[in-house]
Amino acid sequence: MDLNNLKAKWDKVFLFQDKKGYKSLRISIECKSDLFIAIDSDGNRCLLLFLPSDFDVQLNGTDKEKLQLTYIKEKDVILIKLNDIDFIDLFNDLIISLYSRIYNLSDPDSYSKQLISTFYKWVEFFDDKQDKKMSREEIQGFFGELFILHEVVIGATNQNINSVLESWRGPYGNTNDFILDKKNIEVKTKQESKSFVKISSEFQLDIEFDKGLELCVVSVINDISYGESIFDLLNKTIVLIRDNQGDLAILYHALNQKGLTIDSVKEYNNHRFIVKKMTTYDCTQDNFPKLSTSNIPEEITKLKYHLRTTTLSDFLIEEKKY
């Protein structure tokens, strides 16, 4: 089950004529459980999981503003209903995620529990929970992290895509933006005209024992006409994740840590950037210029300083121009 296949099935459901109540279609013949997509009498998109009549589910139900979970005992069905058409794309991703987890399960207890647990994992992504707006500088920094995430995902495979997604730790407040097995990556995004990046603490360029540390500098220019927004970058990355059959919940959960959803980031569409250059430096060399916990007195804390990138050629690992 992929996105194009699911969209084609929705088109078929909407073509059904003169049918009262739910217009529904089995999601696939490969699915061992009775899983259907449906449209209710109000035109809302739904997912229906029919259960054996002798099986019971203990479910309190969840009625969020945008997404609803209900167990209708008299119909022996678990219902997930989308109440907001602005979240159709995310709802499709939820359905694909649910399908991938239950299509091969034949035991009602297993597939019903899997559906319910996956729902609760996803329901938070349907909330507009943005607490505060990002500043221009925060938007630029977040764009740079997403750019590097997209670059990393390009090289991912079906086998490692989820671990690649989980390596993005910037939204969680980790010391470095990407935590990999053999190295960490700190991402800094600057205007191309600037000669320095801002280091916000004495921990950012601190080396973790027995691991590499790279400083990745993304140089951008503002371009409202031809640049890309955060939303654009996210959509490109989502396409790659789908192609590799990755778990999109990992990405959406990371966004959620910033109070963002795939829909709410559209608010920043007037901030658009063109990446001109990506430069990577090796921070593990003894003479790399930095202030960190390893070379300052313990009495000094909460350091913030500028690091001039024009003098770092001796530590260059890679430079890519776009």
How many discrete domains?
2
Report Rg: 23 Å
Biggest sheet architecture = 6 strands, antiparallel
Q: Which shape, going by the Cα principal axes?
A: elongated
* Helicity range: 25-40%
List keywords for this structure.
322 residues, alpha+beta, 2 domains, six-stranded antiparallel sheet, five-stranded mixed sheet, 7 helices, 13 strands, 29% helix, elongated
Please give a structural write-up.
This protein has 322 residues and is α+β, with helices and mostly antiparallel strands. The chain has 2 domains: 3-126, no CATH class; 136-321, no CATH class. The protein is 29% helix and 24% strand. It has 7 helices and 13 strands. It has helices at 3-15, 88-102, 108-122, 136-154, 161-166, 230-243, 248-257; strands at 23-26, 34-39, 45-50, 62-63, 67-72, 77-82, 178-179, 183-191, 196-199, 212-222, 273-282, 305-308, 316-321. The radius of gyration is 23 Å and the shape is elongated.
What are the SSEs and their pairings?
Elements (H helix, E strand, L loop, with lengths): L2 H13 L7 E4 L7 E6 L5 E6 L11 E2 L3 E6 L4 E6 L5 H15 L5 H15 L13 H19 L6 H6 L11 E2 L3 E9 L4 E4 L12 E11 L7 H14 L4 H10 L15 E10 L22 E4 L7 E6 L1
Parallel strand pairs: 8-10
Antiparallel strand pairs: 1-2, 2-3, 3-6, 4-5, 5-6, 7-8, 9-12, 10-11, 11-13
Helix pairs in contact: 2-3, 4-6
